[in-house]
Write a structure and sequence with these properties.
Distance between the termini: 12 Å
Radius of gyration: 21 Å
Strand content: 5-15%
Strand order of the largest sheet: 1-2-10-7-8-9-11
CATH architecture of the largest domain: 3-Layer(aba) Sandwich
Structural class: alpha/beta
Shape: globular
Number of helices: 20
Largest sheet: 7 strands, mixed
Helix content: 40-55%
Number of domains: 3
């Protein structure tokens, strides 16, 4: 490796969980970079759910708007470098490859199959670590996603379709990029660093933030699977609270986990017409369907309806305006799913439901323009009606218990149908039917952390 191709250092899993464990000088420099220069490589040390003050970046969604007694706690991904928590799995997949000697700057182009946020994270991390990035994604996502990837210097290879056609991005990735040694693919749908990041960093962060609400425990973790990395946080939650429920949320228009259904939908980042390889089916308890347009309209309510929310639901002006800008479409989906499962289970005021807002509004202005084109003028009265129907009006329809043997077997078959086509053996797929597989993969965090530190010290 030449002098100009040295590996740019970054944090361990433990340091992403708690960046205060970084050397004090590194932490201070990273926070300065966060405030002054988005493209400073020190921002890799800001990959964390924590705010600069050390608290987990989260909020309690207003109970007046949810219509349920339970606490709906939303962890916010908007302040991660690149604007989404998906930068975490992009980084861990790349750093694990560097530690293993399989990826080197100056030798490889980094490829990220994605529908948006992971692709943005791939382009961003590659830029900071000195790689060229190429993102394979559908050609009908929000314009803001393409622009952000290009902003970070990433190239685009677009496949036909929308969110629900991500299988085409996988086919192109496996056909064009994986066989070519020039490319190294950060395969979020199938590589376990994605699972490790979310189980260790997101899961433990969720456990910590819940201690400040209700009974301090987590009754439900609700997450919409895209790659199914985020829902892996539920494994860590269940390790502490075995009785906790993990609810997978997906579009009503594309009920793949619910009944092996397929279809087009508008919730960018989820609903990919498959059971991903890294989805631990064993720990998913319920599948909850959410109408895609409720998520788009719900985002419009949050963005433009502060006065309506204050007047109709009794929110303070400060609370209503504090919600503006911090949600994306999938974040609203997660909130609606949290409300539905809380209603379905009859949760009390002491119970906590934790969910995620992966990104923020900055990726969706073009989607709001399309909504107004479809729906017509969105007046305050329309916003009020939407708010009533979508949030407290969420029903308990389309909630499926997948804890029973027949449902688990169905989901395993669905996984096998997809991933056997991409070269995964029956033996490997069968090994995923044991929790021991997932726990062994998780324990690799403790092997990688010393190696990541050693790599940093040798730069």
């Amino acid at each position: 490796m030449t002098k100009t191709a040295k590996i740019v250092p970054g944090p361990t899993y433990q340091e992403m969980l708690d960046p205060n464990e970084l050397p004090a000088a590194v932490r201070a420099q990273a926070l300065k970079a966060q405030a002054t220069n988005e493209l400073d490589p020190l921002n890799l040390f800001n990959i964390t759910w924590r705010r600069p003050d050390g608290r987990i970046n989260a909020l309690l969604f207003p109970r007046e708007l949810t219509g349920v007694k339970a606490n709906i706690i939303v962890m916010l991904g908007k302040d991660f470098p690149s604007g989404s928590d998906k930068v975490g799995p992009a980084y861990t997949t790349l750093i694990e490859g560097e530690v293993a000697g399989e990826i080197a700057p100056g030798s490889h182009t980094i490829v990220g199959p994605s529908t948006g946020n992971f692709g943005i994270g791939t382009a961003y991390v590659a830029r900071l670590k000195g790689y060229q990035a190429l993102v394979v994604m559908p050609d009908n996502m929000s314009q803001e996603r393409y622009e952000r990837i290009k902003k970070y210097g990433g190239e685009l290879d677009l496949t036909p379709g929308t969110e629900s056609d991500v299988i085409l991005t996988l086919e192109r990735t496996h056909r064009t990029y994986i066989p070519n040694p020039k490319y190294k693919v950060l395969a979020q749908f199938e590589l376990l660093p994605n699972y490790r990041f979310h189980r260790y960093v997101t899961g433990r962060s969720a456990l910590e933030v819940a201690r400040g609400f209700g009974n301090g425990r987590i009754a439900v973790f609700a997450s919409a699977p895209g790659s199914a990395g985020t829902i892996g946080a539920g494994d860590e939650i269940k390790a502490v609270y075995p009785e906790a429920i993990v609810a997978a949320l997906e579009p009503l228009q594309c009920p793949t986990l619910y009944k092996n259904g397929q279809g087009q939908h508008r919730i960018e980042g989820i609903g990919d017409k498959m059971v991903t390889l890294i989805h631990n089916i064993l720990t998913t308890d319920y599948v909850v369907l959410i109408h895609d347009d409720d998520c788009v309209k719900g985002l419009k309510v949050i963005q433009d309806g502060s006065q309506v929310l204050a007047r109709r639901f009794g929110l303070s002006s400060q609370t209503a305006t504090s919600l503006v800008g911090i949600f994306g479409i999938s974040g609203i989906c997660n909130v609606l799913g949290a409300i539905k499962i809380a209603k379905y289970l009859g949760l009390s005021k002491d119970d906590n439901v934790v969910t995620i807002a992966t990104d923020a509004f900055d990726r969706y202005p073009s989607v709001m323009v399309d909504l107004e084109r479809r729906a017509g003028p969105v007046t305050p009265s329309v916003l009020g009606r939407w708010a009533e129907e979508i949030f407290p009006g969420a029903t308990t329809e389309h909630v499926l218990d997948v804890q029973v043997k027949e449902q688990k077997e169905r989901l395993f078959r669905q996984k096998e149908e997809v991933w056997s086509k991409f070269g995964y053996s029956r033996a490997y797929l069968d090994s995923m039917k044991s929790q021991a597989f997932w726990d062994r993969e998780y324990e690799l965090v403790h092997r990688f952390d010393p190696k990541i530190k050693a790599l940093r010290e040798n730069v």
